[in-house]
Amino acid sequence: MIxxxxxxxxxxxxxxxxxxxxxxxxxxxxIPTMGALHxxxxxxxxxxxxxxxxxxxxxxxxxAQFAPTEDFGAxxxxxxxxxxxxxxxxxxxxxxxxxxxxxxEGHATTISVAGPALGLETDFRPHFFTGxxxxxxxxxxxxxxxxxxxxEKDYQQLLVVRQMxxxxxxxxxxxxxPTVREADGLALSSRNAYxxxxxxxxxxxxxxxxxxxxxxxxxxxDAAEACATGRAAxxxxxxxxxxxxxxxxxxxxxxxxxxxxxxxxxxAAWLGKTRLIDNIAV
Length: 282
Known about the structure:
The protein is α/β, with parallel strands linked by helices. It folds into two domains: 6-177, HUPs (Rossmann fold); 190-281, Pantoate-beta-alanine ligase, C-terminal domain (Pantoate--beta-alanine Ligase, Chain: A,domain 2). It has helices spanning 11-23, 39-51, 79-88, 99-102, 121-124, 128-143, 155-167, 197-203, 205-218, 223-237, and strands spanning 6-8, 28-33, 54-59, 93-95, 147-151, 173-177, 240-248, 263-271, 274-281. The strands form two sheets. A six-stranded parallel beta sheet has the order 1-4-3-2-5-6, with helices on both faces. The chain is globular. It is found in: Cytoplasm.
């Protein structure tokens, strides 16, 4: 029999719920999401279940990480079906606050992160990581989970959250999980729902070009040349690339030539009205 999760609407209820679990000696995992759940989110739940005794998933479309010209109003909101999916996996609690709960009247504090937040997404969405860091900080301080799960598809976001947690000495381990993909390689994303049937077929070119670029770099092609070729291939397929860049996978700084540092290739590109992001290790 499937038991519905406890539905929490306020920070005080989130804090009390986690405190109750901790008082019983239970470990707690948090899955922060904006809802419109897919198999990538569910993989985070499954991995959290292996690691902790209790799970709280959060569903909140965070207005602070959307610019006025972006898709805040159109972003899919499917709370009822999301909760059903989480219940089927045995998630014990769901925190789904209203915007006024997270940002009450007079709210005046934000969290700003440098380091891995500089460049890439910030070059095109300068507001984004302040919004992400602020809401994730609020969730972690509100719930004080032992671990919090994030997917590697949003790789820069994962590193930004890790930096924030380390800098603020928050007692939560940030766990990253490999990107979950469709059979044709496209990374799962709630925004994939925006794609038309034709665009969805074209979208598979994004991970393919990413792999081709990584292969070229591994074989000794100059990174700048390989990335330029990759961007041209995306444009030829109908994308409008924001970036395709090689970075240090631990800091996201530009790599040092002829070094043995770990590397990550990251891409963001528009296909019609949909912005897709992806990344792979090199």
